[in-house]
Write a sequence for this structure.
C-alpha cells in the first residue's frame, strides 16, 4: 500500500471489500480469502508468494484468470500423478473436505491453498490456476 501511496479506504474501494478488512489483513488479525488475495495480487501485479511475504522477490509472470477450484483440483491431481485421497493424506485433512472442494460446495481457504502448494512443491499461483507454470 505504501509503494502505491494508498490508504486502507482507497485499497478497499479498488478491490471491493471493507476498509476494516484491509486493516485486519495489514495488522495480521485476519487472513484474506483466496478471492480477495487474488484481487490484491492482481492489483499489485505480484505473485501470491510475494503478496503473502513468503517470497520477498516478485517473480513477474503472466497471470491468467483462475478457474473454479472444483475444476482445478482434478487437474492438479492428474498433473502431479496423485490421487485426491493421497493429497488428503499428505495434507492431513479429511477426505470429506476435498470431496466438497471437488463438488464445488466449498472452496479451500488461503491456508489450505498454501498447504497444497507446499505438499505439491509448487507455487500458490499454480495451485489456484493463476499461472500456467
Amino acid at each position: 500500500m505504501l509503494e502505491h501511496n494508498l490508504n486502507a479506504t482507497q485499497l478497499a474501494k479498488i478491490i471491493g471489500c471493507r476498509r476494516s478488512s484491509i486493516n485486519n489483513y495489514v495488522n495480521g488479525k485476519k487472513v484474506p480469502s483466496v478471492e480477495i488475495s487474488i484481487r490484491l495480487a492482481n492489483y499489485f501485479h505480484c505473485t501470491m508468494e510475494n503478496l503473502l511475504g513468503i517470497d520477498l522477490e516478485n517473480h513477474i509472470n503472466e497471470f491468467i484468470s483462475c478457474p473454479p477450484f472444483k475444476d482445478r483440483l482434478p487437474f492438479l491431481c492428474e498433473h502431479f500423478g496423485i490421487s485426491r485421497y493421497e493429497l488428503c493424506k499428505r495434507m492431513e485433512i479429511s477426505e470429506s473436505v476435498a470431496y466438497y472442494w471437488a463438488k464445488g460446495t466449498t472452496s479451500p481457504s488461503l491456508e489450505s491453498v498454501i498447504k497444497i502448494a507446499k505438499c505439491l512443491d509448487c507455487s500458490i499461483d499454480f495451485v489456484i490456476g493463476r499461472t500456467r507454470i
In short: The mean pLDDT is 94. The first helix runs from residue 8 to 15. Residues 66 and 129 are 5 Å apart (CA to CA). DSSP finds nine helices and no strands in the chain.
